[in-house]
Amino acid sequence: MPKAVSLFTGCGGSDAGLHACGFDVVMANDVMSYARDVYLANLPETDYVVGDVKGIESFPKADLLAGCYPCQGFSVGGVRDPDRGINYLYREFDRALRQIRPKAFIVENVSGMRRANNQHLAVNQLTRFRMAGYKVSWAVLDAREYGVAQERSRMFFVGIRSDLGIEYEFPAPTHALPGNAASGLPGCPTIKDRIGGMPEWPEGEFDAQPFHWYYLSRDRWRGWDQVSRTIVANSRHTPLHPISPKLERLGPDEWRFVSDAPARRLSYREAAALQGFDADMTFPDTGGTRLRYRVVGNAVPPPLFQAVASAIPDIW
Ligand SMILES: C[S@@+](CC[C@H](N)C(=O)[O-])C[C@H]1O[C@@H](n2cnc3c(N)ncnc32)[C@H](O)[C@@H]1O
Q: What is the pLDDT of residues 103-152, one digit of tens each?
């Protein structure tokens, strides 16, 4: 079994993908203790260290290093400020890379890292990883093309240690985008495929705060036969469940419900299923509803990470 070290691990979306392709995750790390609790409730075999990555002096040996450093500075949903310190946590990933010298690494981040004002950071990361002795490939992948019922595009860097003489190729899509039947691939799953059998009104499992003006500044609704809007970490901004009335546009950044019928956000459990986690995922009682949404929204869709990891040739 190849061994992996996981940094910025969260509740383990990336690691669920690694497990599915046969990796033994020997160490994981995150600052958030509830992320650790959820992770260990579902993937109990890993040594999960809670604390700032900067405090970790030595990392165990591993064949693969995986890391999805935070993205607030690059994200469309977050504060877009390329000067924020949080944007420089890739230096910690680079430190671990140089210490472990794994055969390969995978980094996931938001696609906003390509934007003009962030480009110097993306280029800096690429340069560092290449100087650390890796052949690095990068791509922006659309999660829908890998069987995830959600609009979510993410940037990946995959590096293979140069002495192995191998170049990584990103996996070809396995699913067709909506409306692209001509590709011959099966269509990507819909909201109904993922959460159709779940309770319609799971009291206590969804954020029931009022829909304030900001929430109604865009269309948060998708129907059963569509894919979900992006699952985010902030529970208040979670998309609507399809049993809610549709939204109609009133004007720029202004929408309203077409009827007074009851409306609700997706629950954290539905959000997890739409990310591609197992439907029976365990959420320990050590964290409340908002934290549950947060770890789920922060996660990489496990099927997407699995697709990227399993495309690494057998160098283990
Ligand atoms: C994009 S999320 C990672 C998601 C995770 N890979 C998954 O698939 O579930 C980034 C994570 O970095 C963590 N983080 C932020 N600053 C950190 C630091 N200084 N040290 C360790 N973890 C940190 C956050 O708590 C968050 O869980």
A: 999 999 887 766 666 777 788 899 999 999 999 999 999 999 999 999 99
Cα 9 to ligand 1 centroid, rounded to whole Å: 6
E strands, 12-133, are: 24-30, 47-50, 64-67, 104-110
Token pair listed for 104: 């390969």
Residues 6+ apart with CB under 8 A from 241: 206, 263, 264, 265, 266, 267, 270
Closest CA to 265 of 229, 301, 315: 229
What is the CA(11)–ligand 1 centre distance, in A? 9
* Ligand 1 contacts CB of residue 238 (under 6 A): no
- Determine if ligand 1 sits within 6 Å of the CB of residue 121: no
Regarding the beta carbon of 297 and ligand 1, being less than 6 Å apart is answered no
Is 21 noted as a catalytic residue in this protein?
no
Domains in the chain with CATH codes: 3-175+301-310 (3.40.50.150)
Tens of pLDDT, residues 62-73: 999 999 988 655
